[in-house]
C-alpha cells in the first residue's frame, strides 16, 4: 500500500536515528516561537501524539526543554506547557574586524548575557587566538567549552558555503584559505557557523530590523569595504564560492590602473579625505558628497537590475545621508530599473550582525541535534 506524505510525517520521526533527530528539530522549532503543550506540538508538526510523547520525554531527559506550568483551562484537565530550557546550553558569537573581535555569550532563547571586546597585535588574526578569547569569555561566566552547543563567527571576507573555510579576509591578514571552522570545532564541537558579516547583517535586519517580513532583499553596506547581502525567497544566497555580493570590486575602467568602486568610494579609500569623523559630513565639506553618493547609488542600481528585489536596504555610512539622501537613491532607482523596489535605511547598525549570527546558530543547533550531549 502506498503511504501518503502526511502518514509518513506522522509516523517516521520516532523510528530511526535520523527520524528522531528530525522529530526533535521539528519540536524545538515550534518551541522557539512560544511555549506549547504536547497536543499543540502534535497538531503543529503533524507528528503523531505517541511519537511526540517520546520525543518530549527525550528532550526533557536531555534538559533541552522543561515544563513551565499549565495552560489556561477550557474545560477538563489543563495541558502542561513546554518551553526551551534557556540556560541548559549556550552559544558563542564573534564578530571579527581589523585588529579586534567582539564576542558575546547567549542562551538558547536568544538572550545575550555577556560581552567581551578583545584586541590582537600585528596584522594577522590567528584562529587559535580567537579560540582562547572565546574560552576566556566562557570561564569568566563560570562555563566550560562543554557547556557550549554552537559557535557563530562573522567574518569580513569570503567564506566558502558550509565549510567554515575563509577564502580571503584582508582586514584579518588572511590572503589564502583559512580553516577557521575546523579550528573552532576542535574546541567547541561540530556545530560551528562561519559566514560573511554582511550576510549575517541582512539576516539580523530581516528578523529584527528594517527588512522584517520581506523575502526578496538586497542590503548594500558602505564601510571600509563595500559589500552586499542578497536574499531571495527568504534565503541568503552566498553564491557558489561565497563571493556573492562582493559588489565593491566592480571595476572603474575609466580610472587609471583599473581601480574598483571600493578603492575609490569605500571608507577605506576615502580615509585620507574624511579622517575619522562622520564620513558624510566630511565629504560634504569637501564638495565630494554628490560624486560619492552617485557611485553608491550606481551599485544599488546594479544590484536591483541583477536580482529584482522587493526591498533595497542601505546600511553603514550611507545611513548618515538622512531622508533627502534616501529620496535621491529611490529617485535614481526609479529612473534606471524596470520596477523600482522599496528603499530603506538599515535600522540596527552593527548590532544586526550579532542578531543575525544568533538567529542562524540557534537554527543550526536545532537542525543538527547539537543540544544532545
Automatic annotation (TrEMBL):
Pfam families: ROK. Residues 1-23 are annotated as: Disordered. Residues 1-11 have a biased composition (Basic and acidic residues). GO terms for molecular function: kinase activity. Keywords: Kinase, Transferase. SUPFAM superfamilies: Actin-like ATPase domain, Winged helix' DNA-binding domain. InterPro entries: ATPase_NBD, ROK, WH-like_DNA-bd_sf, WH_DNA-bd_sf. It comes from the Bacteria. PANTHER family: BIFUNCTIONAL UDP-N-ACETYLGLUCOSAMINE 2-EPIMERASE_N-ACETYLMANNOSAMINE KINASE (PTHR18964:SF149), ROK (REPRESSOR, ORF, KINASE) FAMILY (PTHR18964). Belongs to the ROK (NagC/XylR) family. This is Sugar kinase of the NBD/HSP70 family, may contain an N-terminal HTH domain.
Amino acid at each position: 500500500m502506498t503511504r501518503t506524505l502526511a502518514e509518513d510525517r506522522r509516523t517516521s520521526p520516532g523510528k530511526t536515528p535520523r527520524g528522531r533527530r528530525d522529530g526533535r528539530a521539528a519540536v524545538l522549532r515550534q518551541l522557539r516561537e512560544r511555549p506549547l503543550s504536547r497536543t499543540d506540538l502534535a497538531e503543529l508538526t503533524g507528528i503523531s501524539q505517541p511519537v511526540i510523547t517520546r520525543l518530549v520525554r527525550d528532550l526533557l531527559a536531555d534538559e533541552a526543554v522543561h515544563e513551565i506550568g499549565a495552560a489556561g483551562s477550557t474545560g477538563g484537565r489543563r495541558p502542561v506547557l513546554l518551553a526551551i530550557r534557556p540556560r541548559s546550553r549556550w552559544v558563542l558569537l564573534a564578530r571579527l574586524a581589523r585588529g579586534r573581535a567582539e564576542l558575546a555569550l547567549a542562551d538558547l532563547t536568544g538572550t545575550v548575557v555577556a560581552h567581551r571586546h578583545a584586541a590582537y597585535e600585528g596584522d594577522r588574526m590567528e584562529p587559535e587566538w580567537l579560540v582562547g578569547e572565546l574560552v576566556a569569555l566562557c570561564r569568566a561566566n563560570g562555563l566550560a567549552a562543554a557547556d557550549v552547543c554552537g559557535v557563530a563567527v562573522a567574518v569580513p571576507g569570503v567564506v566558502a558555503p558550509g565549510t567554515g573555510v575563509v577564502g580571503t579576509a584582508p582586514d584579518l591578514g588572511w590572503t589564502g584559505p583559512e580553516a577557521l571552522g575546523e579550528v573552532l570545532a576542535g574546541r567547541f564541537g561540530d556545530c560551528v557557523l562561519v559566514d560573511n558579516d554582511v550576510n549575517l547583517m541582512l539576516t539580523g535586519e530581516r528578523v529584527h530590523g528594517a527588512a522584517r517580513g520581506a523575502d526578496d532583499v538586497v542590503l548594500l553596506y558602505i564601510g571600509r569595504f563595500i559589500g552586499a547581502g542578497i536574499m531571495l525567497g527568504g534565503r541568503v544566497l552566498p553564491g557558489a564560492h561565497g563571493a556573492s555580493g562582493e559588489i565593491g570590486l566592480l571595476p572603474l575602467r575609466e580610472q587609471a590602473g583599473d581601480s574598483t568602486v571600493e578603492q575609490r568610494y569605500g571608507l577605506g579609500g576615502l580615509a585620507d579625505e574624511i579622517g575619522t569623523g562622520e564620513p558624510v559630513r566630511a565629504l560634504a565639506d569637501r564638495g565630494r558628497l554628490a560624486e560619492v553618493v552617485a557611485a553608491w547609488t550606481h551599485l544599488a542600481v546594479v544590484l536591483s537590475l541583477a536580482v529584482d528585489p522587493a526591498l533595497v536596504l542601505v546600511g553603514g555610512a550611507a545611513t548618515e545621508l538622512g531622508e533627502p539622501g534616501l529620496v535621491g537613491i529611490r529617485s535614481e532607482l526609479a529612473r534606471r530599473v524596470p520596477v523600482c523596489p522599496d528603499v530603506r535605511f538599515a535600522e540596527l547598525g552593527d548590532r544586526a550582525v550579532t542578531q543575525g549570527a544568533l538567529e542562524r546558530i540557534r537554527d543550526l543547533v536545532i537542525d543538527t541535534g547539537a543540544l544532545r550531549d
